[in-house]
What does this fold into?
Amino acid sequence: MKFRFEKLEIWQDAINFANKIYYITKKFPQDEKFGLASQLRRAAVSVALNIAEGTNRNTTKDRKHFFQMSITSVDEVVTALYISLNQGYITKKEFDLIYQDAGKQTARTASFIKSLK
It folds into this structure.
């Protein structure tokens, strides 16, 4: 049995996005394990979780709310990425790649929200 959200490309992209965040945060300093690395991971996971939760909401307004929350979680990730870059925890190349993915995730989710009736 498949859950409805598993069919959504925005959810699949969000899972890949979270996996990339987990990958880059593995090399963060140990003293950031419960700080910035944890925050980045939680925000990235929240992107996919909000999409999944929004999929089965009863009203369009409620669905849109959760999909919008997934976008705000992307915003959190981007903010944490800037801090990670400034602290030297990630390279500019890593930042640019994840930043580009974040932009795509936001654009695709916003487009999906607009398509809901």
